[in-house]
Each structure stands twice: as structure tokens, then as C-alpha cells.
Amino acid sequence: MKVSLKTNIIIDLAMFIAMAVTSISGIVIKVIAPLRRMAHEEWVREMASFIVGGSRRMWGKIHLWAGVVLLLLLVLHIVFHWAAIDGFFKRHIPSTAWRTTLYMVLAVLSLLSIVPWIWAF
What we know:
The protein is mainly α and 121 residues long. 88% of the residues lie in helices and 0% in strands.
């Protein structure tokens, strides 16, 4: 499938933003949000509350939906670049059987990465 450079850049930029939001929200959930409960110093609790600016549940939803967007954009990215991916593997793995095996392993790994998403909904 042929895709324009502009479309490719927009998808890649959206993937970068979704990845950044997923990473930042994960750090907030894991590191900063617990400080509000566990900090013994009042200034640490106030700073953590200021940085977080919302509930842990809100940050969890942001994290989940940014991850979903990232996953969907990644699938779109792979679909648009499939010819290049396939050409790379054809050049480096000439055996059709080995390539097919590799594609099947990658498909299984991809499906396994979707299982946690099913549980989240």
C-alpha cells in the first residue's frame, strides 16, 4: 500500500505523542502518585499533588487510552510499511519456510500483546 510522506509523518508524529503520553502517565502512576500517600514530609505530598494534578484512576485511564491509540497507530504503520518489511526479510531470509515461520512467530507475539488489552476492557 502506497502512502504519502505527509501521511507517514503525521502517523509517526502521532505515535511519538502517544508513546510519550503512555510513558509519562506510567511514571506518574508508578512513581509520583504513590508519593502523595506515602510521603512523610508535607512539602513532598504537596509537590506530588501539584505534579499529578488528578487522581490515580484518571492517570490510569489516560495511560490505557494512550496505549490503545499507540497500538492502533503501530498496526497502521506496519500495514503501510509492509512492502518494505517484507522486502527486508526476503533479502535477508531467502527461505520461504523460514520467513513464514518468522511471520507466524511475530503474529503470535502480536496476539499475545493484545490479550492484556482485552482484559482491560
